[in-house]
Amino acid sequence: MNTHSESTQQNAQEHERSQEAMGAVRNGLQLGGSLLVTYAIAFGIRPLLTHYLSPEDFGRFNWADSFSAIFFIATNLGLEMYIRKEVSRRPEHASDFFGTSLLVRLGLTVVLMGALTLVMSYRGDSPEMRALVLVFGLAQLLIMLNASMAALLHAKGKVAGLSISNVVTKVVWGGGLLAVGVLRLPLPWLAVPVVASEAIKFVVSWQLARQHIGLVFRVDLGAMWKVLKAGLPYFLTAAALATNGRLDIMILGMLGSHEEVGWYSAAWSISNITFALNPVMGWVLLPLMSRAAARSEEEVSVIARRALEGTLAVTVPMMMLIVMGAPLWIGLLGRDYSLAVNLLRLQSPLFVLAFVTMTCGSWLTMTNREWWVTGTSIFGSLLLNPLLNLLLVPRMYAAYGDGGGAAGTALSMLLMEVAITIIMLSRMGSAAVDRRLLVMIAKTAVVCVGVVAMDRTVLAPLEDWPRIAVEAMLYVMGVLTLGAVRPGEVLAVVKLARRRGNPEPEPAPIAVAPTP
Protein backbone atom coordinates (compact mmCIF):
# COMPACT_ATOMS: atom_id res chain seq x y z
CA MET A 1 0.00 0.00 0.00
CA ASN A 2 2.87 2.35 0.82
CA THR A 3 4.43 1.65 -2.56
CA HIS A 4 1.10 2.38 -4.28
CA SER A 5 0.73 5.62 -2.30
CA GLU A 6 4.24 6.77 -3.17
CA SER A 7 3.63 5.96 -6.84
CA THR A 8 0.38 7.93 -6.82
CA GLN A 9 2.10 10.90 -5.19
CA GLN A 10 4.94 10.77 -7.70
CA ASN A 11 2.46 10.66 -10.59
CA ALA A 12 0.63 13.66 -9.13
CA GLN A 13 3.90 15.60 -8.90
CA GLU A 14 4.81 14.72 -12.48
CA HIS A 15 1.33 15.80 -13.59
CA GLU A 16 1.76 19.13 -11.77
CA ARG A 17 5.13 19.74 -13.40
CA SER A 18 3.70 18.86 -16.80
CA GLN A 19 0.87 21.31 -16.27
CA GLU A 20 3.31 24.05 -15.24
CA ALA A 21 5.58 23.44 -18.23
CA MET A 22 2.71 23.37 -20.70
CA GLY A 23 1.20 26.48 -19.19
CA ALA A 24 4.55 28.26 -19.44
CA VAL A 25 4.91 27.23 -23.08
CA ARG A 26 1.40 28.43 -23.88
CA ASN A 27 1.96 31.75 -22.14
CA GLY A 28 5.31 32.12 -23.88
CA LEU A 29 3.77 31.64 -27.30
CA GLN A 30 0.94 34.08 -26.54
CA LEU A 31 3.32 36.73 -25.27
CA GLY A 32 5.83 36.00 -28.00
CA GLY A 33 3.16 36.45 -30.66
CA SER A 34 2.09 39.81 -29.25
CA LEU A 35 5.70 40.90 -28.90
CA LEU A 36 6.45 40.04 -32.52
CA VAL A 37 3.59 42.31 -33.55
CA THR A 38 4.66 45.13 -31.23
CA TYR A 39 8.29 44.92 -32.32
CA ALA A 40 7.21 44.88 -35.96
CA ILE A 41 5.28 48.10 -35.32
CA ALA A 42 8.26 49.66 -33.51
CA PHE A 43 10.64 48.50 -36.24
CA GLY A 44 8.40 50.10 -38.86
CA ILE A 45 7.86 53.38 -37.01
CA ARG A 46 11.48 54.09 -36.11
CA PRO A 47 12.71 54.33 -39.74
CA LEU A 48 9.77 56.57 -40.59
CA LEU A 49 10.58 58.76 -37.60
CA THR A 50 14.23 59.11 -38.57
CA HIS A 51 13.16 60.37 -41.99
CA TYR A 52 11.38 63.28 -40.28
CA LEU A 53 14.06 63.93 -37.62
CA SER A 54 17.69 64.87 -38.12
CA PRO A 55 20.31 62.83 -36.20
CA GLU A 56 20.59 65.75 -33.77
CA ASP A 57 16.83 65.89 -33.03
CA PHE A 58 16.65 62.09 -32.86
CA GLY A 59 19.54 62.25 -30.41
CA ARG A 60 17.75 64.85 -28.28
CA PHE A 61 14.66 62.65 -28.21
CA ASN A 62 16.59 59.61 -27.02
CA TRP A 63 18.79 61.60 -24.63
CA ALA A 64 15.69 63.04 -22.90
CA ASP A 65 14.23 59.53 -22.60
CA SER A 66 17.42 58.16 -21.05
CA PHE A 67 18.00 61.17 -18.80
CA SER A 68 14.51 60.93 -17.25
CA ALA A 69 14.73 57.13 -16.99
CA ILE A 70 17.93 57.34 -14.91
CA PHE A 71 16.08 59.44 -12.31
CA PHE A 72 12.96 57.27 -12.30
CA ILE A 73 14.88 54.10 -11.57
CA ALA A 74 14.10 55.05 -7.96
CA THR A 75 10.43 54.11 -8.54
CA ASN A 76 11.30 50.49 -9.36
CA LEU A 77 11.35 49.49 -5.67
CA GLY A 78 12.38 45.93 -6.63
CA LEU A 79 8.72 44.99 -7.02
CA GLU A 80 8.88 43.29 -10.40
CA MET A 81 11.25 40.51 -9.37
CA TYR A 82 9.66 40.24 -5.92
CA ILE A 83 6.25 39.70 -7.53
CA ARG A 84 7.55 37.01 -9.85
CA LYS A 85 9.19 35.14 -7.03
CA GLU A 86 6.56 35.49 -4.27
CA VAL A 87 3.19 36.16 -5.93
CA SER A 88 3.73 33.14 -8.21
CA ARG A 89 3.33 31.02 -5.07
CA ARG A 90 0.62 33.05 -3.27
CA PRO A 91 -1.36 35.36 -5.56
CA GLU A 92 -3.49 36.78 -2.72
CA HIS A 93 -0.35 38.45 -1.33
CA ALA A 94 -0.47 41.06 -4.12
CA SER A 95 -3.21 43.10 -2.42
CA ASP A 96 -1.12 43.37 0.76
CA PHE A 97 1.35 45.81 -0.78
CA PHE A 98 0.33 46.95 -4.25
CA GLY A 99 -1.94 49.84 -3.21
CA THR A 100 0.68 51.24 -0.84
CA SER A 101 3.39 50.87 -3.49
CA LEU A 102 1.28 52.98 -5.85
CA LEU A 103 1.14 55.82 -3.33
CA VAL A 104 4.87 55.56 -2.64
CA ARG A 105 5.62 55.81 -6.35
CA LEU A 106 3.37 58.84 -6.77
CA GLY A 107 5.17 60.57 -3.90
CA LEU A 108 8.55 59.76 -5.42
CA THR A 109 7.37 61.15 -8.75
CA VAL A 110 6.74 64.58 -7.24
CA VAL A 111 10.24 64.62 -5.76
CA LEU A 112 11.89 63.37 -8.96
CA MET A 113 10.10 65.89 -11.16
CA GLY A 114 11.48 68.63 -8.92
CA ALA A 115 14.97 67.16 -9.11
CA LEU A 116 14.82 66.97 -12.91
CA THR A 117 13.76 70.61 -13.09
CA LEU A 118 16.61 71.75 -10.85
CA VAL A 119 19.27 69.76 -12.73
CA MET A 120 18.11 71.02 -16.13
CA SER A 121 18.05 74.60 -14.85
CA TYR A 122 21.62 74.19 -13.61
CA ARG A 123 22.69 72.72 -16.98
CA GLY A 124 21.03 75.56 -18.88
CA ASP A 125 18.90 73.28 -21.06
CA SER A 126 16.44 74.97 -23.41
CA PRO A 127 12.73 75.21 -22.44
CA GLU A 128 11.97 72.71 -25.21
CA MET A 129 14.35 70.11 -23.76
CA ARG A 130 13.01 70.71 -20.25
CA ALA A 131 9.44 70.10 -21.40
CA LEU A 132 10.48 66.95 -23.28
CA VAL A 133 12.29 65.51 -20.24
CA LEU A 134 9.38 66.22 -17.87
CA VAL A 135 6.81 64.59 -20.17
CA PHE A 136 9.13 61.59 -20.44
CA GLY A 137 9.28 61.57 -16.63
CA LEU A 138 5.53 60.99 -16.48
CA ALA A 139 5.95 58.24 -19.06
CA GLN A 140 8.65 56.57 -16.92
CA LEU A 141 6.27 56.40 -13.94
CA LEU A 142 3.60 54.69 -16.05
CA ILE A 143 6.16 52.29 -17.52
CA MET A 144 7.22 51.22 -14.01
CA LEU A 145 3.60 50.76 -12.91
CA ASN A 146 2.80 48.69 -15.99
CA ALA A 147 5.86 46.49 -15.45
CA SER A 148 4.56 45.62 -11.99
CA MET A 149 1.01 45.07 -13.25
CA ALA A 150 2.32 42.77 -15.95
CA ALA A 151 4.41 40.86 -13.40
CA LEU A 152 1.23 40.19 -11.38
CA LEU A 153 -0.55 38.73 -14.39
CA HIS A 154 2.47 36.67 -15.42
CA ALA A 155 2.81 35.31 -11.92
CA LYS A 156 -0.79 34.10 -12.13
CA GLY A 157 -0.30 32.82 -15.68
CA LYS A 158 -3.07 35.01 -17.16
CA VAL A 159 -1.52 36.72 -20.16
CA ALA A 160 -4.09 36.55 -22.98
CA GLY A 161 -5.65 39.94 -22.20
CA LEU A 162 -2.24 41.47 -21.62
CA SER A 163 -1.04 40.21 -25.00
CA ILE A 164 -3.92 41.99 -26.74
CA SER A 165 -3.31 45.13 -24.67
CA ASN A 166 0.35 45.17 -25.71
CA VAL A 167 -0.59 45.22 -29.38
CA VAL A 168 -3.33 47.87 -29.04
CA THR A 169 -1.19 50.25 -27.00
CA LYS A 170 1.76 49.83 -29.36
CA VAL A 171 -0.52 50.86 -32.22
CA VAL A 172 -1.47 53.97 -30.22
CA TRP A 173 2.21 54.70 -29.59
CA GLY A 174 3.27 54.16 -33.20
CA GLY A 175 0.39 56.11 -34.67
CA GLY A 176 1.01 58.99 -32.29
CA LEU A 177 4.73 59.17 -33.05
CA LEU A 178 4.08 59.06 -36.78
CA ALA A 179 1.48 61.83 -36.50
CA VAL A 180 3.91 64.03 -34.54
CA GLY A 181 6.60 63.46 -37.17
CA VAL A 182 4.34 64.10 -40.16
CA LEU A 183 2.85 67.25 -38.62
CA ARG A 184 6.35 68.31 -37.51
CA LEU A 185 5.11 69.28 -34.07
CA PRO A 186 7.59 70.63 -31.49
CA LEU A 187 9.96 68.09 -29.96
CA PRO A 188 8.14 67.69 -26.58
CA TRP A 189 5.14 66.22 -28.40
CA LEU A 190 7.22 63.13 -29.22
CA ALA A 191 6.85 61.95 -25.62
CA VAL A 192 3.05 62.39 -25.54
CA PRO A 193 2.24 59.15 -27.46
CA VAL A 194 4.36 57.24 -24.92
CA VAL A 195 2.32 58.68 -22.04
CA ALA A 196 -0.99 57.99 -23.81
CA SER A 197 -0.18 54.37 -24.66
CA GLU A 198 1.16 53.57 -21.20
CA ALA A 199 -1.87 55.18 -19.53
CA ILE A 200 -4.22 52.99 -21.58
CA LYS A 201 -2.16 49.91 -20.73
CA PHE A 202 -2.31 50.70 -17.01
CA VAL A 203 -6.12 50.99 -16.99
CA VAL A 204 -6.50 47.70 -18.88
CA SER A 205 -3.92 45.89 -16.71
CA TRP A 206 -5.61 47.06 -13.50
CA GLN A 207 -8.92 45.63 -14.65
CA LEU A 208 -7.26 42.35 -15.65
CA ALA A 209 -5.51 42.11 -12.27
CA ARG A 210 -8.80 42.69 -10.44
CA GLN A 211 -10.44 39.99 -12.53
CA HIS A 212 -7.75 37.29 -12.38
CA ILE A 213 -6.03 37.95 -9.05
CA GLY A 214 -8.71 39.76 -7.09
CA LEU A 215 -6.39 42.73 -6.67
CA VAL A 216 -7.80 45.39 -4.36
CA PHE A 217 -6.46 48.81 -3.40
CA ARG A 218 -5.33 48.59 0.21
CA VAL A 219 -2.95 50.70 2.29
CA ASP A 220 -0.79 48.62 4.62
CA LEU A 221 2.45 50.34 5.60
CA GLY A 222 3.67 47.37 7.63
CA ALA A 223 3.31 44.95 4.73
CA MET A 224 4.91 47.46 2.35
CA TRP A 225 7.93 47.85 4.63
CA LYS A 226 8.46 44.07 4.67
CA VAL A 227 8.22 43.96 0.87
CA LEU A 228 10.72 46.81 0.50
CA LYS A 229 13.22 45.03 2.76
CA ALA A 230 12.78 41.72 0.94
CA GLY A 231 12.95 43.46 -2.43
CA LEU A 232 16.10 45.49 -1.69
CA PRO A 233 18.50 43.18 -3.58
CA TYR A 234 16.05 43.07 -6.50
CA PHE A 235 15.82 46.87 -6.51
CA LEU A 236 19.59 47.32 -6.53
CA THR A 237 19.92 44.76 -9.33
CA ALA A 238 17.14 46.36 -11.37
CA ALA A 239 18.63 49.81 -10.81
CA ALA A 240 22.00 48.64 -12.06
CA LEU A 241 20.56 46.86 -15.09
CA ALA A 242 18.27 49.77 -15.96
CA THR A 243 21.27 52.03 -16.45
CA ASN A 244 22.48 49.88 -19.37
CA GLY A 245 21.79 51.82 -22.53
CA ARG A 246 20.59 54.80 -20.44
CA LEU A 247 23.61 55.99 -18.51
CA ASP A 248 25.71 55.42 -21.64
CA ILE A 249 23.52 57.71 -23.71
CA MET A 250 23.53 60.35 -20.98
CA ILE A 251 27.34 60.31 -20.81
CA LEU A 252 27.63 60.28 -24.61
CA GLY A 253 25.37 63.33 -24.89
CA MET A 254 27.48 65.20 -22.32
CA LEU A 255 30.95 64.22 -23.57
CA GLY A 256 30.12 63.97 -27.27
CA SER A 257 27.12 65.56 -28.94
CA HIS A 258 23.42 64.98 -29.55
CA GLU A 259 24.32 63.90 -33.09
CA GLU A 260 26.48 61.12 -31.64
CA VAL A 261 23.48 60.09 -29.53
CA GLY A 262 21.35 60.10 -32.67
CA TRP A 263 23.66 57.73 -34.54
CA TYR A 264 24.06 55.48 -31.51
CA SER A 265 20.29 55.41 -30.89
CA ALA A 266 19.59 54.67 -34.56
CA ALA A 267 21.77 51.56 -34.37
CA TRP A 268 20.26 50.65 -30.99
CA SER A 269 16.71 50.87 -32.36
CA ILE A 270 17.57 48.11 -34.84
CA SER A 271 19.76 45.87 -32.68
CA ASN A 272 17.18 46.17 -29.90
CA ILE A 273 14.88 43.91 -31.93
CA THR A 274 16.92 41.04 -30.49
CA PHE A 275 15.45 41.89 -27.11
CA ALA A 276 12.00 40.76 -28.27
CA LEU A 277 12.55 37.68 -26.11
CA ASN A 278 13.48 39.66 -23.01
CA PRO A 279 9.92 40.05 -21.64
CA VAL A 280 9.15 36.41 -22.41
CA MET A 281 12.20 35.40 -20.37
CA GLY A 282 11.00 37.36 -17.37
CA TRP A 283 7.29 36.81 -17.70
CA VAL A 284 7.37 33.07 -18.33
CA LEU A 285 10.74 31.65 -17.24
CA LEU A 286 10.91 33.24 -13.79
CA PRO A 287 7.52 32.02 -12.50
CA LEU A 288 8.33 28.54 -13.85
CA MET A 289 11.73 28.54 -12.15
CA SER A 290 10.20 29.89 -8.94
CA ARG A 291 7.84 26.92 -8.66
CA ALA A 292 10.63 24.51 -9.62
CA ALA A 293 12.87 25.97 -6.91
CA ALA A 294 10.33 24.94 -4.31
CA ARG A 295 11.04 21.34 -5.31
CA SER A 296 14.79 21.13 -5.99
CA GLU A 297 17.80 23.12 -7.15
CA GLU A 298 18.63 20.52 -9.77
CA GLU A 299 15.27 21.07 -11.47
CA VAL A 300 15.98 24.81 -11.63
CA SER A 301 19.38 24.04 -13.16
CA VAL A 302 17.85 21.87 -15.87
CA ILE A 303 15.37 24.63 -16.76
CA ALA A 304 18.20 27.20 -16.87
CA ARG A 305 20.29 25.09 -19.24
CA ARG A 306 17.39 24.47 -21.61
CA ALA A 307 16.52 28.18 -21.47
CA LEU A 308 20.10 29.00 -22.47
CA GLU A 309 19.87 26.55 -25.32
CA GLY A 310 16.59 28.01 -26.56
CA THR A 311 17.63 31.65 -26.37
CA LEU A 312 20.94 30.99 -28.13
CA ALA A 313 19.08 29.15 -30.89
CA VAL A 314 17.05 32.32 -31.49
CA THR A 315 19.41 35.19 -30.68
CA VAL A 316 22.51 33.94 -32.53
CA PRO A 317 20.83 33.88 -35.98
CA MET A 318 19.30 37.29 -35.24
CA MET A 319 22.77 38.58 -34.41
CA MET A 320 24.13 37.13 -37.66
CA LEU A 321 21.30 38.70 -39.63
CA ILE A 322 22.05 42.09 -38.09
CA VAL A 323 25.82 41.87 -38.67
CA MET A 324 25.59 40.70 -42.29
CA GLY A 325 22.86 43.14 -43.24
CA ALA A 326 24.03 46.17 -41.24
CA PRO A 327 24.38 48.53 -44.26
CA LEU A 328 20.96 47.46 -45.48
CA TRP A 329 19.18 47.97 -42.14
CA ILE A 330 20.81 51.35 -41.46
CA GLY A 331 19.97 52.39 -45.01
CA LEU A 332 16.30 52.10 -44.11
CA LEU A 333 16.75 54.93 -41.60
CA GLY A 334 17.95 57.43 -44.19
CA ARG A 335 21.24 58.67 -45.61
CA ASP A 336 21.96 60.88 -42.60
CA TYR A 337 22.49 57.78 -40.42
CA SER A 338 25.17 56.00 -42.49
CA LEU A 339 27.73 56.39 -39.68
CA ALA A 340 25.64 53.99 -37.57
CA VAL A 341 26.58 50.89 -39.64
CA ASN A 342 29.64 49.89 -37.61
CA LEU A 343 27.86 50.87 -34.39
CA LEU A 344 25.17 48.34 -35.23
CA ARG A 345 27.76 45.62 -35.76
CA LEU A 346 29.41 46.43 -32.44
CA GLN A 347 26.07 46.26 -30.63
CA SER A 348 24.77 43.02 -32.13
CA PRO A 349 26.71 40.49 -29.94
CA LEU A 350 25.67 42.39 -26.83
CA PHE A 351 22.19 40.92 -26.74
CA VAL A 352 23.31 37.32 -27.06
CA LEU A 353 25.51 37.86 -24.02
CA ALA A 354 22.73 39.71 -22.21
CA PHE A 355 20.39 36.71 -22.49
CA VAL A 356 23.06 34.45 -21.06
CA THR A 357 23.53 36.75 -18.05
CA MET A 358 19.75 37.08 -17.57
CA THR A 359 19.36 33.33 -17.40
CA CYS A 360 22.30 33.00 -15.01
CA GLY A 361 20.84 35.78 -12.88
CA SER A 362 17.47 34.03 -12.77
CA TRP A 363 19.12 30.80 -11.58
CA LEU A 364 21.09 32.61 -8.87
CA THR A 365 17.97 34.45 -7.70
CA MET A 366 15.83 31.34 -7.53
CA THR A 367 18.54 29.48 -5.61
CA ASN A 368 18.68 32.29 -3.00
CA ARG A 369 21.90 33.86 -4.24
CA GLU A 370 20.26 37.15 -5.23
CA TRP A 371 22.77 39.35 -3.41
CA TRP A 372 25.49 37.88 -5.57
CA VAL A 373 23.52 38.97 -8.65
CA THR A 374 23.13 42.42 -7.11
CA GLY A 375 26.85 42.82 -6.51
CA THR A 376 27.73 41.69 -10.03
CA SER A 377 25.16 44.00 -11.60
CA ILE A 378 26.35 46.99 -9.60
CA PHE A 379 29.97 46.27 -10.53
CA GLY A 380 29.19 46.00 -14.24
CA SER A 381 26.53 48.65 -14.77
CA LEU A 382 27.40 51.31 -12.21
CA LEU A 383 31.20 50.97 -12.02
CA LEU A 384 32.80 49.22 -14.99
CA ASN A 385 30.51 50.51 -17.76
CA PRO A 386 30.59 54.22 -16.77
CA LEU A 387 34.36 54.01 -16.27
CA LEU A 388 34.83 52.53 -19.75
CA ASN A 389 32.58 55.23 -21.22
CA LEU A 390 34.49 58.02 -19.50
CA LEU A 391 37.76 56.58 -20.83
CA LEU A 392 36.73 55.61 -24.37
CA VAL A 393 34.11 58.16 -25.47
CA PRO A 394 36.27 61.34 -25.38
CA ARG A 395 39.35 59.56 -26.73
CA MET A 396 37.59 57.87 -29.64
CA TYR A 397 35.60 61.03 -30.38
CA ALA A 398 38.85 63.02 -30.56
CA ALA A 399 40.62 60.32 -32.61
CA TYR A 400 37.91 59.44 -35.16
CA GLY A 401 35.61 62.45 -35.21
CA ASP A 402 31.95 61.93 -36.10
CA GLY A 403 30.79 58.51 -34.90
CA GLY A 404 33.89 57.94 -32.76
CA GLY A 405 32.22 58.84 -29.48
CA ALA A 406 29.26 56.57 -30.25
CA ALA A 407 31.68 53.75 -31.11
CA GLY A 408 33.31 54.26 -27.71
CA THR A 409 29.92 53.85 -26.04
CA ALA A 410 29.10 50.70 -28.02
CA LEU A 411 32.51 49.19 -27.26
CA SER A 412 32.12 49.99 -23.55
CA MET A 413 28.80 48.17 -23.41
CA LEU A 414 30.22 45.13 -25.20
CA LEU A 415 33.30 44.86 -22.98
CA MET A 416 31.18 45.21 -19.85
CA GLU A 417 28.76 42.50 -20.97
CA VAL A 418 31.61 40.10 -21.79
CA ALA A 419 33.03 40.59 -18.28
CA ILE A 420 29.64 40.08 -16.61
CA THR A 421 28.93 36.95 -18.66
CA ILE A 422 32.23 35.37 -17.61
CA ILE A 423 31.60 36.21 -13.94
CA MET A 424 28.03 34.88 -13.95
CA LEU A 425 28.85 31.62 -15.70
CA SER A 426 31.77 30.99 -13.37
CA ARG A 427 29.49 31.55 -10.36
CA MET A 428 26.99 28.99 -11.62
CA GLY A 429 29.79 26.51 -12.20
CA SER A 430 28.74 23.06 -13.38
CA ALA A 431 25.07 24.03 -13.15
CA ALA A 432 25.50 26.42 -16.10
CA VAL A 433 26.21 23.96 -18.89
CA ASP A 434 25.97 20.30 -19.78
CA ARG A 435 27.31 18.30 -22.69
CA ARG A 436 24.19 18.88 -24.77
CA LEU A 437 24.50 22.67 -24.47
CA LEU A 438 28.23 22.67 -25.25
CA VAL A 439 27.67 20.55 -28.36
CA MET A 440 24.89 22.89 -29.49
CA ILE A 441 27.16 25.94 -29.04
CA ALA A 442 30.01 24.29 -30.94
CA LYS A 443 27.79 23.31 -33.87
CA THR A 444 26.25 26.78 -34.02
CA ALA A 445 29.73 28.37 -34.04
CA VAL A 446 30.76 26.17 -36.98
CA VAL A 447 27.69 27.28 -38.95
CA CYS A 448 28.35 30.96 -38.15
CA VAL A 449 31.96 30.72 -39.35
CA GLY A 450 30.82 29.01 -42.54
CA VAL A 451 28.22 31.69 -43.29
CA VAL A 452 30.75 34.49 -42.71
CA ALA A 453 33.23 32.76 -45.04
CA MET A 454 30.57 32.49 -47.76
CA ASP A 455 29.64 36.15 -47.24
CA ARG A 456 33.23 37.28 -47.82
CA THR A 457 33.90 35.05 -50.85
CA VAL A 458 31.25 33.37 -53.02
CA LEU A 459 28.30 35.61 -52.06
CA ALA A 460 30.19 38.93 -52.02
CA PRO A 461 29.16 39.98 -55.58
CA LEU A 462 25.42 39.64 -54.84
CA GLU A 463 23.17 42.56 -54.03
CA ASP A 464 22.16 43.05 -50.38
CA TRP A 465 18.69 41.47 -50.36
CA PRO A 466 19.59 38.30 -52.37
CA ARG A 467 22.79 37.88 -50.36
CA ILE A 468 20.97 38.11 -47.01
CA ALA A 469 18.28 35.67 -48.20
CA VAL A 470 20.87 33.10 -49.33
CA GLU A 471 22.84 33.43 -46.10
CA ALA A 472 19.69 32.97 -44.03
CA MET A 473 18.90 29.75 -45.92
CA LEU A 474 22.47 28.53 -45.49
CA TYR A 475 22.29 29.17 -41.77
CA VAL A 476 19.01 27.30 -41.35
CA MET A 477 20.28 24.38 -43.44
CA GLY A 478 23.51 24.31 -41.47
CA VAL A 479 21.99 24.22 -37.97
CA LEU A 480 19.44 21.59 -39.05
CA THR A 481 22.03 19.43 -40.79
CA LEU A 482 24.45 19.50 -37.86
CA GLY A 483 21.65 19.09 -35.33
CA ALA A 484 22.30 22.37 -33.48
CA VAL A 485 18.52 22.93 -33.60
CA ARG A 486 16.21 19.92 -33.33
CA PRO A 487 12.92 20.24 -35.25
CA GLY A 488 11.35 17.43 -33.23
CA GLU A 489 11.70 19.40 -30.01
CA VAL A 490 10.24 22.52 -31.63
CA LEU A 491 7.23 20.51 -32.80
CA ALA A 492 6.83 19.08 -29.31
CA VAL A 493 6.69 22.62 -27.89
CA VAL A 494 4.02 23.59 -30.41
CA LYS A 495 2.06 20.44 -29.58
CA LEU A 496 2.16 21.25 -25.88
CA ALA A 497 0.91 24.74 -26.55
CA ARG A 498 -1.94 23.55 -28.77
CA ARG A 499 -3.19 21.31 -25.97
CA ARG A 500 -3.50 24.55 -23.92
CA GLY A 501 -2.13 22.99 -20.80
CA ASN A 502 -4.37 19.92 -20.88
CA PRO A 503 -2.26 16.77 -20.97
CA GLU A 504 -3.26 13.86 -23.13
CA PRO A 505 -5.53 11.47 -21.26
CA GLU A 506 -3.70 8.62 -19.64
CA PRO A 507 -4.95 5.06 -20.03
CA ALA A 508 -7.16 3.84 -17.22
CA PRO A 509 -5.25 1.88 -14.60
CA ILE A 510 -5.62 -1.89 -14.66
CA ALA A 511 -7.49 -3.18 -11.66
CA VAL A 512 -5.36 -5.39 -9.43
CA ALA A 513 -6.84 -7.58 -6.74
CA PRO A 514 -5.59 -6.72 -3.26
CA THR A 515 -2.95 -9.03 -1.85
CA PRO A 516 -4.38 -11.22 0.88
From TrEMBL:
<feature type="transmembrane region" description="Helical">
    <location>
        <begin position="474"/>
        <end position="494"/>
    </location>
</feature>
<feature type="transmembrane region" description="Helical">
    <location>
        <begin position="132"/>
        <end position="153"/>
    </location>
</feature>
<feature type="compositionally biased region" description="Polar residues">
    <location>
        <begin position="1"/>
        <end position="12"/>
    </location>
</feature>
<keyword id="KW-0812">Transmembrane</keyword>
<feature type="transmembrane region" description="Helical">
    <location>
        <begin position="261"/>
        <end position="286"/>
    </location>
</feature>
<feature type="transmembrane region" description="Helical">
    <location>
        <begin position="405"/>
        <end position="425"/>
    </location>
</feature>
<feature type="transmembrane region" description="Helical">
    <location>
        <begin position="102"/>
        <end position="120"/>
    </location>
</feature>
<feature type="transmembrane region" description="Helical">
    <location>
        <begin position="307"/>
        <end position="332"/>
    </location>
</feature>
<dbReference type="InterPro" id="IPR052556">
    <property type="entry name" value="PolySynth_Transporter"/>
</dbReference>
<feature type="transmembrane region" description="Helical">
    <location>
        <begin position="61"/>
        <end position="82"/>
    </location>
</feature>
<feature type="transmembrane region" description="Helical">
    <location>
        <begin position="344"/>
        <end position="364"/>
    </location>
</feature>
<feature type="region of interest" description="Disordered">
    <location>
        <begin position="1"/>
        <end position="21"/>
    </location>
</feature>
<dbReference type="Pfam" id="PF13440">
    <property type="entry name" value="Polysacc_synt_3"/>
</dbReference>
<feature type="transmembrane region" description="Helical">
    <location>
        <begin position="160"/>
        <end position="183"/>
    </location>
</feature>
<feature type="transmembrane region" description="Helical">
    <location>
        <begin position="29"/>
        <end position="49"/>
    </location>
</feature>
<feature type="transmembrane region" description="Helical">
    <location>
        <begin position="371"/>
        <end position="393"/>
    </location>
</feature>
<keyword id="KW-0472">Membrane</keyword>
<feature type="transmembrane region" description="Helical">
    <location>
        <begin position="189"/>
        <end position="209"/>
    </location>
</feature>
<feature type="transmembrane region" description="Helical">
    <location>
        <begin position="437"/>
        <end position="454"/>
    </location>
</feature>
<protein>
    <submittedName>
        <fullName>Polysaccharide biosynthesis protein</fullName>
    </submittedName>
</protein>
<feature type="transmembrane region" description="Helical">
    <location>
        <begin position="230"/>
        <end position="255"/>
    </location>
</feature>
<keyword id="KW-1133">Transmembrane helix</keyword>
